Amino acid sequence: MSAEVLDGLGLLVLTIWLVLVFARGGFWRCRDRDDFDAPPEPQVWPSVVAVVPARDEAALIGATLGSLLVQDYPAEFRVILVDDQSSDGTADKAREAAAASRHPDRLTILSGAPLPRGWAGKVWAMAQGEARARADFDPDYILFTDADILHEPGVLRAVVARAQAGSFGLVSLMASWRCESSAEKWLIPAFTYFFQMLYPFRWVSDPRRRTAAAAGNLMLARADLLAKAGGVASISGALIDDCAFGARMKSVGPVWLGLSQRVRSLRFYPRFADIGRMVSRSAFAQLRFSPLLLVLTCLGLVLTYFVPVLLALFAPGAAGVFGIVAYALMSASFAPIQRFYGLPRWRALTLPLIAALYLVYTLDSALQFWRGRGGMWKGRAQAHLVRPAGRPLATIETENP
């Protein structure tokens, strides 16, 4: 390869990282957090119903549901657990958690109906919870949260205060994940980093921009605006339900998205393969199941994360310098999320290796889709719901969750 071509390649990758670092909403700074400010509390607190979709969550539901039931909230607050046909006694564990709490009367357990054709499993559970909340309690806000999420006691007050102070139709928090196993330490910070890159939180919260997203860990929606957006039913077939939900809510009002260490996931990923399955479940859906977008994404990953290192190590002259600067920018942008998770900064140097694993997971996601097992989660293969027009539905395969 000639020196001119190498120099041009080096300039290209340097430009990519200059744009990502300085012209993409400062996504990597991790400054859009729920603990960086304290919105004033409202004079009159609105009513809230939390909806928790749960399928085979007996191991975690006691702790997570208990953290919701004991929320320090000064107005009417109810919790609806939608037991999505669990086979492990999830509902029994939920009843035990309620009985042990100070507010057992806050909990309603709803046995989920069979999954209708055309619906994603979690979204169907959310929709049933929304319908029950409106019928029984007619709340001002509906809080959707995952069954593996642990909430600190003041979280509900904080998100409601933010929603009221900013007149937000949706306030969403991305939880901090467990970072204890070797696989988690290597891959979980990158998951958050890549999500922030795709959906810069500052842009999501800017009503002038079209970028929209949410984090399913916690989504507080104003009930009247949710109804105006068509309710949860409007995203019935969405595999990436939280981002679809965020887009629907932003179409009817302003939204806010931030990181949080007061909302934590208890889900444990002991092996790299466990995280790989989690990523593969939705990676190809993010690419709209397009082979062309898959090829372009793979080329983009190679160009963005691998080429700078190769140039820095092996290219002479200007190309090598461009590669070194690009790699330095890459590493610097990955350092704040390492600090957020309490990990040493040197791990930021390993982003190209981590990106290689995410590339493998993305390819696996496409392969599983083409085999009819795309979107596999909790024993359900769901990617068949959104196959491109004109292609037949795949046979729905299941596996033990």
What is the helix content? Answer: 40-55%
Order of strands across the biggest sheet? 3-2-1-4-7-6-8-5
Tally of distinct domains: 2
Number of contiguous helices: 13
Structural class: alpha/beta
What's the CATH architecture name of the largest domain?
Alpha-Beta Complex
Q: What is the 3D form?
A: globular
CATH class of the largest domain: Alpha Beta
Largest sheet: 8 strands, mixed
Radius of gyration: 22 Å
Can you identify the CATH superfamily of the largest domain?
A: Spore Coat Polysaccharide Biosynthesis Protein SpsA, Chain A
Low-confidence stretches: 387-401
Overall pLDDT score: 92
Query: Based on DSSP secondary structure assignment, what is the total number of beta strands?
Result: 8
Give the SSE order as H and E letters.
Answer: HEHEHEHEEHEHHEHHEHHHH
CATH-defined fold name of the largest domain: Spore Coat Polysaccharide Biosynthesis Protein SpsA, Chain A
Tell me the strand percentage band.
5-15%
Rounded to the nearest angstrom, the distance between the terminal CA atoms is 50 Å
